[in-house]
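user: Here is a favour to ask of a fellow structure person. I have my own habits and do not want them to colour yours. Could you put it straight underneath, so I can go through it closely?

assistant:
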Amino acid sequence: MRKSGSEDALSHHGVGHALEALKAGTIKRAMIIGKGSLFLGRLTNLADGASFIMEGPGAGTEPAQGVSQSDVTEMLLAALSDVAANLQKG
């Protein structure tokens, strides 16, 4: 069976194993982490890495446990406060 263009591109970039395991149902999700140069990140103060989560069909349907809406709101406000503080420094 021939792979579609997007599946071929994913396999070429190293996430093919995760894609195959998701399709087979042996895993529910996979986190892909890409890290660039620590030196260049410090030098330019820019992010040079990326992370993402791949989920199979139905993987995100379980209800969240132990986190209330107020907890999420507090975390978001703290993160936005950090972003604002970093923007003021620059």
Observations:
- The CA atoms of residues 41 and 47 lie 6 Å apart.
- The chain has a mean pLDDT of 75.
- DSSP finds four helices and two strands in the chain.
- The beta strands are 29-34, 50-55.
